[in-house]
């Protein structure tokens, strides 16, 4: 905690200076709210709109977390299959790369045509955004398993299943969590984009309504909440990482 405070005060000061400069610019140049609202106006707008905004927030939160869990699970399963089956990896790894070359914003309308305006196309968009970083990071983690330990366990007669669950998977956890951190931030962004396609509620819907009515302070409220939500998911993943791989820190301290 002390280390966090020592390292965190510089970014905090930088953010406060930026907000102060922003406020000063809007006052000095008398900028209209609908062009660039002052930070104080955004805070006041956030307070006033909170009761109407909460249902949108809960909808996006549910969509983001659901898509992240599905995407991370699919990413881990794909990574394990590609790692354990080399011929499958040689055949399908290029398809894994190609899947990320299709812009989500282009694919999304097709998903609406195929699956309608329900939750399914939105979950598919988030899953497509989340599974790739987890899969690639996990494959890299599996390949970085300590070769001496691998050779030693093979000499002891360990089966492929034992090698995977007791050696390769634990050693890949730091890499897997790196992918999860990226996927966690992508999940919120993908949820907002998917809500632009057609939804009854969600932060994406809130932003669309605010933009169409030139209520710029509301747009900034939504943007700030999206940033904080991404940061919160990122922080939860870091907390989970510290709980699950304490052994790595102990090893580093030795």
Automatic annotation (TrEMBL):
Subcellular location: Cell membrane
Entry keywords, A to Z: Cell membrane, Membrane, Transmembrane, Transmembrane helix, Transport
Span of domain ABC transmembrane type-1: 57-237
Domain of life: Bacteria
Membrane topology, record value: Multi-pass membrane protein
InterPro entries (alphabetical): MetI-like (IPR000515), MetI-like_sf (IPR035906)
Main localization of the protein described in the UniProt heading: membrane
Pfam families to which the protein is assigned, alphabetical: BPD_transp_1 (PF00528)
CDD domains named in the record: TM_PBP2
Transmembrane segments: 12-29, 57-85, 92-117, 123-142, 219-240
Family of this protein: Belongs to the binding-protein-dependent transport system permease family.
Protein name: ABC-type nitrate/sulfonate/bicarbonate transport system permease component
